[in-house]
Design brief:
The protein is mostly beta strands and 124 residues long. Helices cover 4% and strands 49% of the residues. The chain is built from 1 helix and 11 strands. The strands form 2 sheets. Strands 2, 4, 5, 6, 9, 10 and 11 form a 7-stranded mixed sheet that branches. The longest helix is centred in the last third of the chain and has 5 residues. The relative contact order is 0.31.
Length: 124
């Protein structure tokens, strides 16, 4: 079991930056792959970024690669998503996610624990 607590949502102007954080707790939290998804009304939840338990491997959707950076603090069971050069297209509810089955299962949204979601709004 994993519980996820998110921080860092908010509003920012286009071109600006925002950092999301997610703290995981539970028996398997320290060995879980973690990541971020986002969702807008009328569309399915979209993969954004993921990181392995070790932090040695990261994965990004093409739409955010080069602008977003995911990182992990394993000692604190915490991940961060640094979002730079934000665009209105990045506006969505962002969800923290975790899976003890590895990053590829997480990316497919199989056996995933979800955070509550946090709103990110980018205005022009």
């Amino acid at each position: 079991q994993v519980q996820l607590l998110e921080l860092g949502g908010g509003s920012v102007q286009a071109g600006g930056s925002l950092r999301l954080s997610c703290a995981a707790s539970g028996r398997t939290a320290s060995r879980s792959a973690m990541g971020w998804f986002r969702q807008v009304p009328g569309k399915e939840r979209e993969f954004v970024a993921a990181i392995t338990w070790s932090g040695d491997n990261t994965y990004y959707s093409d739409s955010v690669k080069g602008r977003f950076t995911i990182s992990r603090e394993n000692t604190k069971n915490t991940i961060h998503l640094q979002m730079n050069t934000l665009s209105p297209e990045d506006t969505a509810v962002y969800f923290c996610a975790a899976s003890d089955k590895g990053p590829f299962i997480l990316m497919r949204k199989i056996n995933v624990y979800w955070g509550q979601g946090t709103q990110v709004t980018v205005s022009s």
